[in-house]
Each structure stands twice: as structure tokens, then as C-alpha cells.
Amino acid sequence: MSGWVSTISLANYPHVVIMVFFLCWSMGCSSHDDLSESFKIENEVSQNRLIKELRQKNITIKIDNGNRVWFSSLDREKVHGVARQVMDASSPDRVSFHYDNPKYTNMLERRLRENDIPFETIIMDNGIKQLVLYQNSIHIWGKLKAEVDELYKRELRAKYGIPTNEP
Predict the structure, then answer these.
(1) What CATH number was assigned to the domain covering residues 13-89?
(2) CB contact set of 157 (below 8 Å; sequence gap of 6+)
(3) Parts of the chain belonging to CATH 3.30.70
(4) Which of 35-44, 111-120, 127-136 has the lowest mean pLDDT?
(5) Which one, 14, 20, 148, 153, has the greatest CB density within 10 A?
């Protein structure tokens, strides 16, 4: 009697099922949808506009829980082109600056911390500290920055002998 006879014991059955699943998945028999690349614009308004534009152009996308856009590598150029247009048309969501005198940068940083205002600090390669403030909270930090700006201007006027209009 010739022929191939397969004997699979019940103990090996789960292993066979797992192996068949992975074989099918790796061959594309599963629900793999080739959405292998992702893109995210940190500015939430711009990210939502990107999603809207991609859907209007009928580009297949999937949005994950982090609002990241997943797309096929075949659509890379289209997605990046739309993203570039969206970012070019967007206004910045952050302001980055420092004072020439680090004393005032540190003063504003201290006031921001005391008032629990969210911001980021970046130390540039040349050692200069930059403060990054979010545009959506300008109504909170704008007043503090204006106060520090005024102190900075007073010091510069005094340093260079420029008269002030103050009584």
C-alpha cells in the first residue's frame, strides 16, 4: 500500500491551527489591508483637515486611536502631497522665542511654571534656551509675556539712555 498517510494527534491540533493561521496571514489570505505607512500632523486642526482632504480624494486610510493616518505605500506620494498642502496652509500652533538677555527668558519661564501654563523648553546647540508656547493658550501666557517684555524694554531704555514716557 503506497501513499501518504497523515496522523495528527489531538495534542498537536492547536499547533497546526496556529501554523495554518500564520501561513495564511503571511500569504495575504488574512485581512491584511496594506495600510503600512502612517502620517500625523501634531497640530490637531491640521490633522483633521488632512483626514478630510484624503477622504475627499478617495484615498483609502485608517485612523488609529492616536489620530494617526495609516495608508498604503502605493499612496505615499498622494498623501505626502496633500499633507504638504495642508501644512503650508496652516497657521503655526506654537511660538518659539527667547530674550537676548537670559535673565528675562528665565523670568518668563519661572512665571509660566508658577501659573501652571503648559510650555516646552528647548536648549539650542549654542546653549540658548528657547521657550515654546502654544497658540491655543495665548490668552493665558500673553499677559505674562507682555509684563516681562515691558521689564526687558525698561532695562534696554535705561542701558542706552533712551527716555521713557512714564511720569
Answers:
(1) 3.30.70
(2) 163, 164
(3) 13-89, 94-160
(4) 35-44
(5) 148
Q: CA–CA separation, 16 vs 35, rounded Å? A: 28
For residue 4 the three cell numbers come to: 501518504
Nearest to 71, CA basis, from 84, 54, 91, 47:
54
**Looking at 9-23, 70-84, 102-116, 145-159, which range is the least confident one?**
9-23
Amino acid at 26: S
Confidence class for position 64, pLDDT limits 50, 70, 90: very high
In angstroms, the CA 103 to CA 42 distance is: 31
Checking if the pLDDT of 55 tops 80, the result is yes
Q: Is residue 143 scored above 60 in pLDDT?
A: yes
| 3-state SS record for 16-49 | HHHHHHHHHHHHCCCCCCCCCEEECCCCHHHHHH
Q: What is the per-residue DSSP string for 84-131?
A: HHHHHHSPPSEEEE--SSHHHHHHHHHHHHHTT--EEEEE-TTS-EEE
Does the 94-160 domain belong in CATH 3.30.70?
yes
